[in-house]
Design brief:
Blueprint (H helix, E strand, L loop, with lengths): L8 E5 L3 H13 L3 E6 L2 H11 L3 E5 L8 H11 L4 E5 L4 H9 L4 E4 L4 H46 L3 H19 L4 E6 L4 E5 L1 H7 L3 H4 L13 H13 L4 E9 L5 E11 L6 E8 L1 H39 L4 H23 L4 E3 H15 L7 E4 L6 E3 H21 L5 E6 L3 E9 L9 H10 L5 E7 L3 E9 L6
Helix pairs in contact: 2-3, 5-6, 10-11, 11-12, 11-13, 12-13, 13-14
Length: 485
């Protein structure tokens, strides 16, 4: 009589009891077994070996002295269990820490049932696939090591017995076929000379060299970030320390100059003094691109959420502004600043590029100020720049706040058209803001002027202004590193 397979066992670590119960109900409905619902990282660490689940659902932010990220890190050091992070929102620092634990996936609260089902299924499938791939690779390493030992022994006998030489040549031919059909690049490196003594066809094709060219080279010739001394030290560590194997994540450089990431597994073999290093290199370009895409998607989502939260705050302040006439002036300034920060986060979330288009940023700020302080004179923007100017993301917020402060005051005190002019080039760009005034009074308060100066007091930004009898002129000069060239 056949028995049905046991359901996969899932551990839930979530300090919100309602969320934990809801997750448990949904997962049990999907056919999974819930081994436990724990509310703290400390409890999870204490019971993880005992529970030994197939999958862990871990909230990033947990009650207690330890968060979910640290718990995940410690668990990964002990056990190979796929982990899915649960999060409602988090900052960039937490995201960077979370990436270091290599989670299978992330689920953002509130969690949809279909999303939960697919994520858990994919986590289990990927973990099984990774385990199988690891087993296959270990088997291949073992096979290569065995065949390399046979090759070394045969080479010593070839000079003595002709019959054994012919047998060895036949074995080498079979070995060559096996190596050449491998999807990974395989190299045999003689430690004494630090030269390749054999390579498979995959290595030749991926690097763009012929076999004859490769046999005149060494590993330092194709690893741009490791010189020969560094590689010799690493090889000696592996040769002298059981189990005589190791892993290097580095880059290989093709004959054309192209550089691509690789995961290189090393195993030392051969008698002492005549060690041979077997190196199996796997191109991990797709994996790195996937990791980068996932990270960028999360960063964009963070900017989008920040923008939405700030816009919600602006809405509440607008309501307060309508109800508090005496505080309108102060609230207008607060609303303008928050709107500007929301605008910058919105622009950051639109693109994965490191820069923000200056013209687009100024247009967005001008539009927001116009909505806040209506006037029959809309700000006029004119640009003589030949190419778009990109602003460093790190400096975009202080620059945007300074421009906002100047435009808000221009709208309040201007007696006519406010002109914004952009000029210069990609190395030096000038922003001119000119607004006419009907009275010879300073159209920007001392505190506002102090704020603008403070915001622009950094390398790559210079501020100056001139106040005449009938107009106020402000000039902001941008250079590198604020301008991205």
């Amino acid at each position: 009589m056949m028995t049905s397979p046991k359901p996969e066992r899932i551990l839930i670590v979530e300090d919100d009891d309602l969320v934990a119960r809801l997750l448990a109900l949904r997962l049990e409905k999907l056919g999974y077994s819930i081994v436990a619902r724990l509310s703290s990282a400390e409890e999870a660490l204490a019971r993880i070996v005992e529970l030994n689940p197939d999958v862990i659902l871990m909230d990033i932010v947990l009650a207690g002295d330890m968060d979910g990220i640290e718990a995940a890190r410690q668990i990964r050091q002990k056990l190979d269990i796929p982990l899915i992070f649960l999060t409602a929102h988090t900052n960039r620092e937490r995201l960077d820490r979370a990436f270091e634990t290599s989670p299978i996936a992330y689920l953002h609260k509130p969690i949809k049932e279909r999303e939960l089902e697919l994520t858990v299924e994919l986590a289990l499938l990927r973990h099984r696939s990774d385990r199988q791939a690891c087993a296959d690779r270990q088997e291949l390493e073992h096979l290569v090591a065995e065949r390399t030992a046979e090759l070394t022994a045969s080479n010593r006998l070839m000079q003595r017995i002709l019959d054994e030489q012919k047998a060895t040549q036949s074995a080498l031919q079979h070995f060559r076929s096996a190596l050449d059909y491998s999807a990974d690049s395989i190299f045999l490196i003689e430690r004494a000379s630090m030269r390749f003594i054999d390579v498979n066809q995959t290595a030749c094709e991926r690097l763009g060299y012929s076999r004859e060219e490769m046999l005149k080279m060494g590993p330092h010739d194709i690893t741009p970030y490791f010189n020969q001394t560094m590689l010799e030290q690493r090889f000696d560590e592996i040769i002298n320390s059981p189990p005589h194997s190791g892993v290097i994540e580095t880059f290989h450089q093709c004959k054309t100059g192209e550089v691509f990431p690789v995961d290189v597994r090393l195993r030392a073999t051969g008698p002492e003094g005549r060690s041979v290093m077997v190196a199996i290199a796997r191109d991990i370009t797709e994996r790195k691109e996937h990791e980068a895409a996932q990270k960028n998607a999360l960063v964009r989502e963070v900017h989008h959420r920040i923008k939405n939260h700030l816009q919600g705050i602006v809405g509440l302040l607008h309501q307060q502004r309508r109800d508090s006439g005496a505080c309108n002036l102060m609230l207008e300034g607060i609303i303008a600043k928050i709107s500007t920060v929301a605008t910058v986060h919105g622009l950051r979330g639109k693109t994965l590029e490191e820069g923000i288009d200056l013209m687009e940023m100024i247009s967005a700020i001008s539009s927001a100020v116009n909505d806040l302080i209506p006037s029959r004179f809309a700000a006029r923007i004119n640009s003589t720049l030949d190419l778009p100017t990109d602003i460093s993301r790190n400096e975009s917020v202080p620059l945007a706040l300074a421009i906002n402060e100047l435009l808000v005051n221009a709208r309040k005190f201007s007696s006519g058209q406010v002109d914004i002019k952009l000029s210069g080039d990609r190395e030096k760009t000038a922003i001119h803001i000119v607004n006419p005034t009907s009275e010879p009074v300073q159209p920007i308060g001392a505190s506002g002027l102090k704020l603008v100066k403070a915001l622009l007091q950094t390398e790559g930004m210079a501020f100056s202004y001139e106040h005449g009898a009938d107009c106020f002129r402000a000039e902001i000069i941008l250079t590198t590193p604020v301008i991205r060239t």
